[in-house]
Design goal:
Shape: elongated
Number of helices: 11
Largest sheet: 10 strands, mixed
Number of domains: 2
CATH class of the largest domain: Alpha Beta
Order of helices and strands: EHEHHEHEHEEHEHHHEHEHE
Oligomer: single chain
CATH architecture of the largest domain: 3-Layer(aba) Sandwich
């Protein structure tokens, strides 16, 4: 599992999604027996320019009061609230160095209509050095299913570790998906399709080796689908409580902090997303 053994850190700006993030982080900290650290950071530059220093200070104080009020009913009793003078992305990325998990809302107060994930959550998911959960309302609030994407990479193995541990703690069912783009061979011959499916099933079996023994309490279903993985995961998110992806898969270029599949899932998922590294 992850070497990050510290607290659960959550960014809070008073927006609806940050309230969801705070609730998510509180539950996660309670489940893992960790401390909860709430970070309140500088608002956007345009907002600062529009406000006097006094108004800005009052706003930060108001947010701190709101966060403390929400924590009065927290599950975890070990929690702190910290007001930072640096920008939200920098504060959260810095905190990720010793955190077990960072939780952020999908969109903050500066969100634009039609945008499903804001710049802060995108940047934190790209730059953080620990798993990041991007919280949003689930399309199906009655579902407790955890979905994880697997492609045989080290990143997807870490995603599997996170997903199994989360499903075990919460008692949720786990769906493990392996999806791939159609190839020319697959389109041309039935033999090609059969081989691709056989290869996919073998990859999935190898990826799961050891996990089912380590987590015998987790109810696991597997699916192999010859469709683009970002599309499969986005579709699966419509009936999930959480989608888990590795920060980079097999197709990621060296130096990229976030792969194309994980970026796409962040933008299109209809439930919270965990990006694991």
């Amino acid at each position: 599992m992850s070497t990050h053994t510290g607290e659960v850190v959550v960014g809070y700006d008073g927006s609806a999604d940050s309230e969801l993030a705070l609730d998510w982080a509180d539950q996660l900290a309670d489940e893992q027996g960790r401390a909860l650290r709430v970070l309140i950071s500088e608002v956007g530059v345009s907002q600062v320019l529009e406000a006097t220093a006094e108004r800005h200070a009052n706003r930060m104080s108001e947010l701190e009061g709101d966060a403390r009020a929400r924590l009065e009913g927290a599950r975890t009793r070990d929690h702190t609230v910290e007001v930072r003078s640096d920008a939200a992305v920098q504060a959260l990325v810095d905190a990720s160095g010793s955190a077990a998990t960072v939780v952020v809302g999908a969109r903050g107060h500066s969100r634009m209509s039609g945008v499903l994930v804001g710049s802060v959550s995108q940047q934190v998911a790209r730059q953080a050095s620990c798993p990041v959960v991007v919280a949003r309302e689930a399309q199906d609030p009655s579902s407790d299913r955890v979905v994880v994407g697997v492609d045989g990479s080290l990143g997807s193995r870490k995603a599997l570790e996170f997903a199994f541990a989360h499903a075990s703690r919460t008692g949720a069912p786990l769906t493990v998906l392996h999806a791939w783009h159609e190839s020319f061979v697959r389109r041309e011959t039935e033999e090609g399709l059969a081989k691709e499916i056989s290869d996919a099933e073998r990859l999935l079996g190898e990826a799961l080796a050891g996990f089912t023994e380590q987590y015998p309490d987790v109810k696991v279903t597997t699916e192999t689908i010859p469709v683009a993985p970002q599309r499969v995961l986005a579709d699966a998110s419509e009936a999930a409580a959480l989608v888990v992806v590795g920060s980079r898969g097999l197709g990621a270029f060296a130096g990229l902090a976030l792969g194309s599949v994980s970026q796409s899932v962040l933008h299109h998922a209809r439930c919270p997303v965990a990006v694991v590294r």
